[in-house]
Design a protein that fits this description.
The complex is a heterodimer of chains A (423) and B (168). Chain A has eleven helices and 21 strands. Chain A is α+β, with helices and mostly antiparallel strands. In chain A, helix 4 (205-213) runs antiparallel to helix 10. The relative contact order of chain A is 0.16. Mean pLDDT of chain A is 91; it is low at 256-266. The chains are: A alpha+beta (423), B alpha+beta (168). Chains A and B meet through strand 12, helix 6, helix 8 and helix 9 of A and strand 1, strand 2, helix 3 and strand 8 of B.
């Protein structure tokens, strides 16, 4: 183990005795700890979101992604199987796929033309036998020992996940019944990508992991709904944690609207009759399910967020780009069988979130404000006792930080913070 | 509007007065935003005018979902009211640098393309090149004055630094 890792472990062991209701600020800025996270979390026992099956529909399609900061290629081979491998040539480590998306029979590194098949196996080496009998690889060169580093892959409802861990339980076990059930509710359909963009946020990736689990801040920081008196405030809702605490669902129900005559008369309802929006069509929506849930945010440890607000179905994949920078990748989705009117509603509602989201654009800067606020205070810690100190589901209240504590519960477990010290 | 075509079939026979009026519209639009006169921003559009910000990657793929999109001046005014009264962000300003506009004719109306760069300056003095791209405009004459019936802002990069709150 490197010196850097030992230092990071020492810091981790200094976690405050109050446990997951305290977070030492050093976890957001320590580069040694960041390196240790790549090993213990992203190369460790986690299933990591890679891409959508819909992004690589045909044989030979590939797409690049990342697990933590590690560049990854996802491919679909001749038999329709999906494979994932590190995007690092087995020769000298160059990126093999430069283009973020493409279609190819072989993946060929541009540096010395080593070629790999869609499973990542080495199939060809330029000048392997030298030129005119001179040079070339040694006679004992064994191509089977020089493949692209493979990942295990699992698919679920059109989402592709990968893991470096040989002994990971299946993806659905990792997600648990509650999380996989809710993903099935939202994503088990023919998915179609409607639009994508990304956002650079100047903060450690874990701040965004906290942010999406933090339902306490929603109506305090994000005041679009209140300013425009859009009827969204007295909704019933709650928070569900996975059994191992590190994934969560926050949901809300727009229950009051369901009793209106207008709702009975039409499957599409607009809130413009009582809001101050001039362009009330922004909120036009329709009910896709009959369980009353109209707003949900789901997190899957470590760095995936699934959004379904009104009809705006989106994936947020937040990828670390160094200890104090994160790229937040947005994928706005629809169903293959959406009508034109439904697609229009989803596209309009995309105004609510994303880099320019009327409701949530503050999340682009608020974590940076924390990153700037904690500079020089590495030994201080945050205080997370809203809703108590317990780490349990909160099925009927969202004024709680229970799911944020759940994240840290999982983080401390996977990073090896000793229980007796942490509690 | 053909979403995938950015390059214009440039018209040479447009009256100089119209060309001048369109140039003024496009420059005045940028100066209005740069000077923070955002309540006037919707007035550059027709009442049902459309506005969309989209990445070049999505645009060329034929995807239509915008990072920001408005249908009509009402949605635009909502955007401005939101950034004044609701949204929270670090104060900043834009400075647009515009390229020369090219014009094409579509019946009685016009299409225009103008490349741009936006420099963003934060209250701390931090100054960045925030966006580079092209304005693709669909322009009509209302009582002889040009108005935007549609402006598509095609960004070279898919990445937005921090957030996007002031219209481009």
């Amino acid at each position: 183990m490197s010196v850097a890792h030992e230092t990071a472990e020492t810091n981790l062991l200094e976690w405050p005795a109050a446990g997951s209701s305290r977070v030492p600020y050093s976890v957001f800025s320590d580069p040694a700890l960041h390196a240790l996270e790549m090993d213990r979390i992203f190369r460790g026992p986690t299933w990591n979101y890679l891409c959508l099956e819909a992004e690589i529909p045909n044989s030979g399609d590939y797409k690049t992604s990342w697990i933590g900061e590690i560049p990854v290629i996802v491919t679909r081979d001749e038999d329709g199987e999906i494979h994932a491998m590190v995007n690092r040539c087995a020769h000298k480590g160059a990126l093999v796929c430069l283009k973020e998306r493409g279609n190819a029979k072989m993946l060929t590194c541009v540096y010395h033309a080593w070629s790999f098949d869609l499973k990542g196996k080495l199939r060809g080496i330029a000048f392997r036998n030298g030129i005119n009998g001179k040079g070339g690889m040694p006679s004992d060169f064994d191509p089977t020992k020089h493949r692209l580093e493979p990942l295990r892959v699992a698919r679920f409802c059109g989402l592709v996940f990968g893991t470096f861990s040989e002994d990971m339980p299946p993806l659905e076990t990792y997600l648990g019944d509650k999380m996989s059930g809710f993903i099935r509710r939202n994503f088990d359909r023919g998915l179609k990508v409607l639009g994508t963009h990304s956002q650079i946020i100047h903060n450690n990736w874990k701040m965004y992991a906290e942010n999406i689990r933090d339902s306490y801040h929603a109506t305090l920081l994000h005041t679009f709904y209140t300013t425009f008196k859009v009827n969204r405030l007295d909704m019933d809702g709650g928070i569900i944690l996975s059994d191992d605490k590190w994934h969560h669902i926050s949901f809300a129900k727009r229950a009051t609207l369901q009793e209106t005559e207008e709702y009975e008369a039409s499957s599409v309802h607009s809130t413009s009759y009582e809001s101050k929006l001039e362009g009330g069509q922004l909120m036009d929506s329709w009910d896709e399910y009959d369980d009353g849930i109209t707003h949900s945010i789901q997190s899957i440890f470590p760095n995936l967020c699934l959004q379904f607000t009104l009809n705006s179905l989106a994936i947020r994949h937040f990828v670390p780009r160094g200890v104090d920078k994160t790229e937040l990748l947005w994928f706005f989705l629809g169903s293959e069988d959406d009508s034109e009117a439904q697609t229009e509603m989803r596209e309009r509602q995309a105004n609510l979130t994303g880099a320019g989201g009327l409701v949530s654009l503050e999340d682009g800067c608020i974590n940076e404000f924390v990153q700037r606020g904690i500079a020089g205070s590495e030994t201080a810690a945050s205080f997370l006792e809203m809703g108590g100190r317990q780490v349990e589901s909160s099925p009927d209240a969202r004024a709680t930080e229970t799911s944020v504590r759940g994240f840290w519960e999982g983080y401390r477990r996977i990073m090896g913070v000793a229980e007796e010290i942490g509690q | 509007m053909n979403m995938a075509a950015a390059k214009l079939d440039v018209a040479v026979d447009i009256e100089p007065t119209v060309r001048q009026a369109v140039d003024d519209l496009i420059v005045d639009y940028a100066h209005t935003i740069d000077d923070g006169l955002l309540e006037s921003w919707p007035d550059f559009f027709t009442a049902d005018g459309r506005y969309k910000i989209i990445s070049r990657e999505n645009f060329e793929e034929g995807l239509t979902l915008g990072i920001v999109s408005c249908e009509g001046q009402g949605m635009m005014r909502d955007r401005i009211k939101a950034l004044r009264d609701a949204n929270i962000y670090e104060p900043h300003t834009y400075c647009h640098l515009l390229g020369r506009t090219t014009l094409a004719r579509t019946g009685d109306d016009f299409r225009a393309r103008t490349n741009f760069t936006i420099i963003r300056t934060m209250q701390t003095g931090r100054e960045d090149r925030f966006a580079t791209g092209k304005y693709l405009d669909d322009i009509v004459l209302e009582e002889g004055r040009p108005k935007l019936r549609a402006r598509t802002v095609v960004l070279e990069s898919r990445r937005i630094d921090i957030l996007l709150v002031i219209p481009m």
